[in-house]
Design goal:
seven-stranded mixed beta sheet; 2 domains; disordered N terminus; 14 strands; Rossmann fold; five-stranded parallel beta sheet; alpha/beta; 14 helices; 51% helix
């Protein structure tokens, strides 16, 4: 072979080897990149939106709720998450009003791209956010909103806390059973408080009772004039129906200042506020309230109490809400495992839940999006609520 031909063949072989090396590097790099990409996707967190009142009077509910949601998410993540993926809670302050709930929902949906939102807590939050969630086909799942106006409001909304149709009804029936014919009623101007009033008045009037009613805006600080009017009505009992504990406490203080001590009915906002009940023991002694009662013998509720106390050095503040808030995160886990990270499918799944075992007992959600079950009458004795026998 001629030297030139030998040189040409050598150069050709060298080029071939170089291209083979380059090809191996490229293919190897793609394989490594692909495997890294798959690993990254597999480990990507599942974003769950949360709307809570974290400022204003309703923050007394929002702060412990945030604690409970965080606790439940940490427990789930420690156990492997949802199908191997970690939960990431994205929490927005919805401030217990429709305007801020609307902004919170829009941010969670459009910026954070969540498929499921736990919230709102206040009924006004959920009522305002529902059409936004429905338009985006995102599920809105409330553990605290109880207005009857939310019943079947949208296929994208459901709740594991019972409707106030139950609370108002059982309180009206208890009042009638006591022989009370006339009730004076102080209602804060919010969707939740209005829902309690509507349910109570419908049943109480059906049973032959009459109501003298006064309404107050949420920013009211001086209740003396409306309390004086209601006192003058000479009713058999007085119904206190606020949205938040601070408002209820201000009313009780001014009742005490006016030396007015009527027989009292109260919604679960005050009925579950143990510190306020303790501060006004004499005034509220014998008062009737209705709560979605927690069962301390339920092992899942007991586990919640133990874990919450260990983490936050205090007992769960509002047990009725705490039990459903804790369940909500675990129900999100169950739903996503069942139908995937899809808001439309999750919302549909929510209305098929039957006898799901949680800290709040057996959870069944009806086709109208409401939890099946309801409230229990309690009587206040020595600053504490006891189930009425």
């Amino acid at each position: 072979m001629e030297p030139e031909a030998q040189a040409g063949n050598g150069a050709s072989i060298a080029k071939t080897v170089i291209w083979l090396v380059v090809l191996i590097l490229i293919v190897g790099g793609l394989i490594v990149y692909g495997s890294k990409g798959v690993g990254k996707a597999a480990k990507e967190s599942i974003k769950i939106g949360v709307m809570l009142p974290l400022t204003g009077d309703a923050a007394s509910y929002g702060e412990p709720a945030r604690n409970i949601y965080t606790l439940a998410a940490e427990e789930i993540n420690a156990g492997g998450g949802i199908s191997g993926r970690q939960i990431e809670l994205i929490i927005e302050d919805s401030k217990c009003n429709g305007k801020d709930a609307t902004s919170a929902a829009q941010k969670l949906i459009n910026v954070d791209k969540v498929q499921v939102i736990i919230g709102g807590f206040c009924s006004s939050e959920s009522i305002a956010a529902t059409p936004i969630a429905a338009e985006a086909k995102v599920a809105l799942f409330s553990a605290g909103s109880s207005s009857p106006d939310l019943t079947d409001i949208s296929p994208y909304f459901f709740r594991n806390y019972p409707s106030d149709a139950s609370q108002g009804r059982v309180l009206a029936e208890a009042a009638a059973a006591k022989g009370w014919k006339k009730v004076s009623f102080l209602q804060e101007q919010t969707d939740y408080a209005l829902g309690v009033y509507k349910a109570f008045s419908a049943r109480f009037e059906e049973l032959g009772g009459t109501i003298v009613k006064e309404e107050v805006p949420s920013n009211t600080t001086d209740f003396r004039s409306v309390l004086t009017k209601l006192k003058a009505a000479n009713a058999d009992a007085f119904f206190l129906d606020p949205q938040t504990p601070p408002v209820g406490e201000r009313v009780l203080k001014q009742m005490q200042d006016l030396k007015w001590k009527p027989v009292i009915l109260m919604n679960d906002v005050i009925g579950s506020a143990s510190e306020i009940l303790g501060n006004y023991k004499t005034l509220v002694e014998g008062a009737l309230t209705a709560e979605f009662v927690a069962d301390p013998s339920n092992p899942k509720f007991a586990a919640l109490q133990t874990a919450y106390t260990a983490k936050y050095a205090t007992a769960v503040p509002y047990e009725g809400y705490g039990q459903t808030e804790y369940d909500a995160v675990y129900m999100v886990k169950a739903g996503v495992e069942a139908v995937g990270e899809n808001g439309e499918k999750f919302a549909a799944w929510g209305r098929t839940v039957t006898n799901w075992e949680g800290a709040s007992g057996k959870v069944t959600i009806g086709a109208n999006g409401d939890r099946v079950g309801g409230h229990t009458i309690k009587v206040i004795k020595d600053g504490k609520g006891e189930v009425m026998k």
